Amino acid sequence: MKIGVIQLQSVLDPQVNLKTIQKFLIEAKKEKALAVFLPEVFYSMSDGTKPTTYLVDGHNEHYEAIRSLARDSGLYILGGSAATLLNGTVVNRSYNFDTSGVEIATYDKMNLFACDLSKHSSNQIINEGTVYTKGTKPQMIEVEGYSIGLSICFDLRFPELFRSYSSQGANVLTISSAFTIPTGKAHWHTLVRARAIENQSYVVASAQWGQHNAKISTYGHSLVVDPWGEVLADAGEGEKIVFAEFSLERIKSVRERLDVLRNPKL
Questions:
Q1: Across the strands, what pairs with 217?
Q2: Which residue range is the domain that position 148 belongs to?
Q3: DSSP sequence for 97-139
Q4: Are 66 and 43 in contact (CB under 8 A)?
Q5: 3-state SS assignment for residue 70
Q6: What digits encode the pLDDT tens for the residues 5-44?
Q7: Rounded distance, CA 144 to CA 1, Å?
Q8: Which one, of 139, 142, 143, lies nearest residue 3 by Cα?
Q9: Domain count for the chain
């Protein structure tokens, strides 16, 4: 299955972000991709001190705008998240739609990011707990024969989540992200490859990049990594779409070679 991964420099105004995404979806169709993965908060990027005012609420106009990306393109739209009003609080929710625009499932980010980089040149202090309410349960989806475990950004640092997905049959893990530059340079590639290697699964890590507003800048380097840990695509810097292909045979081959790791009693 051929996939596309969109790297964005999202801003607060969703219309700006949608226009960029739509351009890349046209490219994905030309490249005969079947599914496209979006990054964290692709729809509207706030400054991190408060939620965006463009909140998805039920099936309001923001939900329909996201759903239309799949319906109008005929592509699976996967992994990307948008701030969503839920029972009076805001969650960071991953939306996943099939090629007809039918919702497959959602996932609410369970592990919220907090860091103090006030002594770093970025001068960032971020605490997502002041903006979002954390989710309470993992979520897997089935797409064209692949079992995909959903996660968002800081979830990457919790390997037990991905091991749980693997034990339930996941062979693809998606990590939509908006990694800060300091932590991205230090840990991004290592952690993403580790999740692929230890679970013998493809990992799709779609990322935000660039200066989004006065407070938020992100690392980029959206990645697709295969079950052996080989990097199939690295978007580097800039807004773009990159492509890679999944193979069930590749998953089988790697898992047969590492069977002793998956079945320690052998």
A1: 211
A2: 2-262
A3: E-TTS-EEEEEE--S--EEEETTSTT-EEEEGGGT-PPP----
A4: yes
A5: helix
A6: 999 999 999 999 999 999 999 999 999 999 999 999 999 9
A7: 8
A8: 143
A9: 1
- Measured between alpha carbons, how far is 140 from 201 in angstroms, rounded to an integer? 14
Tell me the whole-structure pTM to 2 decimals: 0.93
The residues, any chain, with a CB within 8 Å of residue 64's CB and separated by 6 or more, are none
Assess contact for 178 and 218: CB atoms under 8 A: yes
Q: Cβ(14)–Cβ(56) under 8 Å?
A: no
d(CA 161, CA 36): 23
Phi-psi region of 155 (alpha: psi -120 to 50; beta: other; left: phi over 0): alpha
CATH of the domain at 249: 3.60.110.10
Q: What angle do CA 96, 98, 100 make, to 5 degrees?
A: 135
Please, how many CA atoms are within 13 Å of residue 153, restricted to the half-sphere of its CB? 31
Active-site pick, 27, 40, 128, 198 = 40
Residue 153: active-site member: yes
Scanning the chain, the segments in alpha helix (DSSP H) are: 14-30, 61-73, 159-167, 181-183, 189-199, 248-257, 259-262
Look up residue 84 and give its two tokens: 């969503």
Asked about 249 being catalytic, the answer comes back as no
- Residue with the two structure tokens 């393109």: 73
Annotated active-site residue 40? The verdict is yes
Condensed to tens digits (0 to 9), the pLDDT of residues 102-158 reads 999 999 999 997 666 556 565 566 778 789 999 999 999 999 999 999 999 999 999
Q: Which of 153, 185, 249, 265 is catalytic?
A: 153
Q: Is 79 helix (H, G, I), strand (E, B) or coil?
A: coil
Q: Catalytic pick from 61, 103, 109, 160?
A: 109
**Counting Cβ atoms within 10 Å, is residue 255 exposed (0-12), middle (13-18) or buried (19+)?**
middle
